[in-house]
Task: inverse folding
């Protein structure tokens, strides 16, 4: 093995004209991409108050239910709030388009025809384009000019399992695994530079390459809670009615026996 | 979240002179004049400008407030926060009517601006249009249910028109949203006393006592402590209720169908609260307190912090 360690000498020109340029280009492209994504992102759309009301209607009953086992409010007030909420859910008066008319329920709208949902998806696609295109260009550039280059020798030994990772593009069986090919150097940078971007651009940067791995649809879905599918609030309200009824059974007033509690606390007997 | 909280704060803002605002004004004014106020680190600097502006308004220094707003406006062109600040300054500088129109325009552009909505209600209240103010605030709370401060303001409006049962309903929402706050419980109890719904008030006063008095620790039982602050105010309320329940037989009727305490419980409660109030009185004034009910109430009323 001692002979194989010195069997290869790398021209310093490779270091100066291939290794450093690839690294530098990748860093710069990452930074550039971050700013392009910032430019492309349009501010989140303002929601109308009707939409907000529809979305937050469920919060009301959740707040009411959260304390129902030891509710701070007296039974009459609890009942009146609970019943008025239940009725409002039943009538659908929280829905932004008003209560549903008649028996025929409208089918949930197709997300692809809803312009609002479309916007969210388009934004995801645009970001993905900015991510993918430069990476493809760089990879093409490396493949075209530096195919089969050996760029660097790692200062530590590795097992043979790393061969496919470190020597992509070089079809030799007996070369030491420590030698890294140009295409593998590209991949190492691709995954390894995220830490550097985080230092340069801050935690929430758009240059993070690991996000490229997910499909555009998955990324769009992850970025925004529900841009694609439209929530059928009417259905959620109907379910919440049952929850309210259930909580009404659990209800107890925290002040129901407060007199005895206080008297006991101060050591008095009734 | 932080941004929403900042907007909520602005929505609830009322000019009020205080030593703190004087201090802020004194300390930050030279910074503004030298133009270095925003050069402090990042967001803290801009927050400082906003704080200074509100402090200047507290002290009635319109000139400084306008300068601050100008600084903020050049930096943040279309921030809803600056929009609301502009409105606040307008309320002070111009007539409330102008501010009202401004808020209406803001809301027309973005109907989900809760802070502007609240300010609109408060301007309407200043103009004396309580009915309209209540309507606006109700509509706002129907959309933004979780704004406790707005619920309290609405209850205050109802109370100012002697609509105490409406105020109670409003306060029960505030209680639901912040069940851990004894201040709201006390507020609820005092409003219930005004309705008057004495049994309900008594329970809520006792609940407030339970939340504010000291828990047993280091072998000192609650009975050995001296009630102060909120706890004293709650005890005072309990005393008022027991006094009413023992002297006026009709007081035990309750709109909320709360059962009044039995005679025995009432008796022990009255003894306990009398003892508590006498302890507090003795501790604050070093005088021997009166023993009888109404005289004690009058004496204790003087030592309760406002």
Result:
């Amino acid at each position: 093995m001692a002979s194989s360690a010195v069997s290869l000498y790398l021209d310093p020109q490779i270091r100066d004209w291939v290794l450093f340029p690839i690294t530098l280009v990748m860093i710069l492209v990452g930074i550039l991409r971050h700013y392009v994504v910032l430019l492309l992102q349009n501010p989140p759309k303002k929601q109308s108050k009707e939409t907000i009301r529809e979305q937050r209607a469920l919060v009301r009953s959740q707040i009411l239910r959260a304390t129902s086992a030891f509710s701070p409010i007296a039974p009459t007030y609890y009942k009146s709030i609970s019943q008025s909420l239940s009725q409002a859910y039943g009538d659908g008066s929280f829905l932004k388009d008003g209560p549903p008319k008649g028996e025929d329920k409208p089918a949930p709208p197709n997300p692809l025809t809803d312009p609002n949902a479309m916007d969210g998806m388009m934004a995801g696609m645009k970001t993905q384009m900015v991510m993918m295109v430069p990476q493809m260009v760089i990879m093409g550039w490396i493949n075209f000019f530096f195919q089969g280059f050996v760029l660097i020798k790692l200062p530590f030994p590795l097992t043979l399992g790393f061969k496919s990772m470190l020597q992509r593009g070089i079809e030799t069986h007996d070369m030491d695994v420590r030698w890294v090919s140009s295409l593998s150097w590209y991949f190492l940078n691709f995954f390894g530079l995220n830490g550097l971007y985080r230092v340069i651009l801050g935690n929430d940067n758009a240059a993070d390459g690991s996000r490229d791995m997910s499909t555009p649809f998955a990324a769009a879905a992850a970025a925004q809670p529900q841009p694609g599918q439209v929530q059928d609030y009417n259905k959620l309200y109907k379910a919440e009615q049952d929850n309210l009824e259930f909580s009404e059974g659990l209800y107890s007033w925290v002040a129901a026996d407060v007199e005895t509690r206080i008297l006991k606390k101060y050591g008095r007997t009734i | 979240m932080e941004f929403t909280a900042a907007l909520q704060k602005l929505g609830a803002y009322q000019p009020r002179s205080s030593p703190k605002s004087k201090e802020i004004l004194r300390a930050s004014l030279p910074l503004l004049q030298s133009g270095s106020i925003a050069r402090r680190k990042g967001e803290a600097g801009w927050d400082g400008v906003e704080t200074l502006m509100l402090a200047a308004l507290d002290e009635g220094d319109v000139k400084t407030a306008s300068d601050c707003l100008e600084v903020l406006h050049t930096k943040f062109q279309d921030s809803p926060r600056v929009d609301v600040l502009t409105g606040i300054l307008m309320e002070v500088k111009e007539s409330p009517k102008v501010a009202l129109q401004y808020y209406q325009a803001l809301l027309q552009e973005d109907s989900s601006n809760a802070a502007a909505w609240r300010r609109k209600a408060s301007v309407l209240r200043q103009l004396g249009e309580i009915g309209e103010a209540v309507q606006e605030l109700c509509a706002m709370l129907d959309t933004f249910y979780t704004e406790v401060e707005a619920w309290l303001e609405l209850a205050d409006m109802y109370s100012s028109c002697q609509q105490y049962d409406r105020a109670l309903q409003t306060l029960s929402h505030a209680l639901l949203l912040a069940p851990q706050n004894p201040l709201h419980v006390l507020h609820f109890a005092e409003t219930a006393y005004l309705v008057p719904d004495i049994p309900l008030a008594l329970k809520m006063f006792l609940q407030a006592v339970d939340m504010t008095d000291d828990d047993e620790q280091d072998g000192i039982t609650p009975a050995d402590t001296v009630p102060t602050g909120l706890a004293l105010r709650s005890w005072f309320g309990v005393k008022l209720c027991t006094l009413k329940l023992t002297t006026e037989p009709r007081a035990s009727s309750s709109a909320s169908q709360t059962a009044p305490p039995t005679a025995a419980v009432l008796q022990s409660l009255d003894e306990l609260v009398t003892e508590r109030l006498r302890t507090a009185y003795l501790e604050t004034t070093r005088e021997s307190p009166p023993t009888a009910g109404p005289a004690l109430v009058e004496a204790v009323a003087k030592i309760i912090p406002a």
Summary: DSSP finds 15 helices and no strands in chain B. The radius of gyration of chain B is 24 Å. The mean pLDDT of chain B is 85.
